[in-house]
């Protein structure tokens, strides 16, 4: 290994270079509440100390390179783990809650079918549908009656999320208008 090992102990190197670890953590905008990245930085510093060869370049540059790249590798690893978890949750959410039951750790409760309850007054919905644009009615039907998320509606209709939100804003604006409610004969 290098001559520097005989000149300095790792403790001395650590005391002189600890700020490098903090610098790279801050520079990479890492939130390190559990000190995991700090510990990884110490390990990278130790590894660089152990493998440093003086004829290959300045020690400070080698330390910076090792610490920074080790922290970036850790960020990538965390991001991959989070992506895998999110994918798992999305793929298995239907298995956990199929729409007919609310499940908790100790019980399972049946959910009333919203569309059966909401659609009891067909005439009311027909009056509303006649006064709305096609897209506004899609928002009412899919979001209010069917309970779909705005994201799902946007995907299904091949529209942007903002477009679907706009449909909902237009419907809510109409429903707040007393004259409109008289036209559709709502006594709400």
UniProtKB/TrEMBL annotation:
InterPro entries: RNA_pol_sigma-70-like, RNA_pol_sigma-70_dom, RNA_pol_sigma70_r2, RNA_pol_sigma_r2, RNA_pol_sigma_r3/r4-like, WH-like_DNA-bd_sf. Residues 14-81 form the RNA polymerase sigma-70 region domain. Keywords: DNA-binding, Sigma factor, Transcription, Transcription regulation. GO terms for molecular function: DNA binding; sigma factor activity. The keyword Transmembrane helix does not apply. Coiled coil: none annotated. Belongs to the sigma-70 factor family. ECF subfamily. This is RNA polymerase sigma-70 region 2 domain-containing protein. It comes from Virgibacillus profundi. The lineage of its organism: Bacteria, Bacillati, Bacillota, Bacilli, Bacillales.
